[in-house]
Write a structure and sequence with these properties.
By secondary structure, the protein is of the alpha+beta class. It has one domain. Helix content is 35%, strand content 22%. The strands form 2 sheets. It has a 6-stranded antiparallel β-sheet. A two-stranded antiparallel ribbon has the order 3-4. Strand 1 and strand 2 form a beta hairpin. The chain starts with 14 loop residues before the first helix and ends in a 6-residue tail after the last helix.
Length: 143
């Protein structure tokens, strides 16, 4: 049965205020990610729930009937690590992860302590591939 509403959705909160409240290293890493993801997606950042910075938007609908909206790309500067969100099945994912640097990976998330631990060129390639795959997989209207 389809869920009626996602727990996390876009808010009108200020990305700048959220970033400015972070510790210095997270602030620097977040600004770097914002610049890179803005370049890749062509979208400005916005808050998605209280802690996720998203770029763009797409509508998904699973075979189960569950549907909703999600950002094309996004991240969250959490206390323990930067959580980077990707389409879980984009082509070349495993090969790129092997070259990324120090990280932990889950289905749709990659966790890094700080950007200095990873290859930013590989991260950019991952973001491009993930966004491209998401747009192909969910070709509906994008914001």
């Amino acid at each position: 049965m389809a869920s009626s509403k996602n727990k996390t959705s876009p808010t009108g909160a200020s990305v700048e205020a959220f970033i400015n409240a972070l510790p210095e290293q997270k602030k620097q890493d977040s600004n770097c990610l914002i610049n890179m993801i803005r370049e890749v997606t062509g979208h400005e950042p916005y808050m998605w729930g209280p802690t996720i910075i998203g770029f763009g938007n797409y509508h998904y609908k699973y075979e189960s009937g569950r549907e909703g909206d999600a950002p094309l790309a996004g991240f969250s500067p959490r206390k323990a690590a930067l959580s980077l969100y990707f389409e879980p099945e984009f082509p070349g994912r495993d090969e790129l992860l092997a070259k990324l640097g120090k990280h932990k990976a889950a289905v749709a998330c990659v966790y890094v302590n700080k950007l200095a631990d990873i290859d930013l060129g590989i991260l950019k390639k991952m973001t491009i591939a993930s966004v491209k795959h998401t747009k192909k997989k969910y070709p509906g209207k994008k914001k």
